[in-house]
Amino acid sequence: MLKSKTFVKKTRSGGIMKIVREHYLRDDIWCGSEVCTECKQEETVLQKDTYIESNLCSFPHYLLPDTNIVLSQIDILEDPLIKNVIILQTVLQEVRHRSAPIYKRLKDILHDKEKHFYTFTNEHHRETYIEREQGESANDRNDRAIRISTKWYSDHLNNTPTDKRLKVVLLTNDRGNKEKAEESGLYSDIIVHRLLAVAIGADSTYPDLMDKHKQSALCNNLNYRHKMAQYAQRASVAYHTQLFFKSRGILNEEGFILFVRKNAIIVLIPKFGLEGTVFFENKDKPSPKLIFNEEAPSLTVEGHSFNMFDKVKVTISLDASNVQHQKIRMSLVEPVISGVSVAPSEPEPEVKRAKLDR
Length: 358
Ligand SMILES: [Zn+2]
Fold this sequence. Notes:
Largest sheet: 5 strands, antiparallel
Distance between the termini: 56 Å
Bound molecules: zinc ion
Strand content: 15-25%
CATH class of the largest domain: Alpha Beta
Number of strands: 14
Number of helices: 9
CATH topology of the largest domain: Rossmann fold
């Protein structure tokens, strides 16, 4: 798959420059683990038995250090005891830019068959490559890339049979990265890397945390609570959105296309900060002629082409036909496409409003 990004930039002299960036993403980059049954790899680097003389991690695991850990703890990484480590391409590149001697030492470890250090080319992997977001520094982007890859590995290795399951432990000493990792639910890893920090004498901790059973229980509890909090948050947003639109009947609003899909457009309504999907395929009527262009990207519906950021008009309503599963529905009003768009709704009678003010 080719990902290309075109944008125009104003040069210092006031001219306009068109920049095209191309990046090839692949889906034949393997995880390198012996336990994996999904990847079609001929050789593996990461072992299925990852026993380390350590009571810090009670579970079998692979370590995934970030750039700063490699730069500051290369001695430890060189220790014969440390095996089965994932080195991301992002980390390798950053280390190369920041310290030639440490880069050399890291390359030596990677070549040492006994060490089982695996380079994962995350920057070319379809599922772990990320683009720098607006306002995001190169550094923050790389930290995010490392978190995304850690998450990918965790999820990927979760597909293996339970008795062989391995965890991926992100090693970081960066506070910001740690906090963001916490947001994405990598709590256990945080606890574990704190403990590793204790082990290498970089930090101190409560004696209780050195007990692997107590530690495991703590991690499980943190992760459970975090997951539940996320569910509650999502459900609450959905509930209040539905309550809001329930008393308002069918609304006509202006919006902008955020994404186009094969059979739908995702519309943002700035007035409500609401995102919704306008589907062009309906169970009960014949589908209009749809042409999806992935490269643009654009979606042509009966000859009308939709592009990102196009302005549209939609109706918003609450579909309560299934009480168990009420949904916000959006339908296209403008542009008018015969057989596809709907007529704008009539303004609601005032009676309903009065009821709401009570
Ligand atoms: Zn795999």
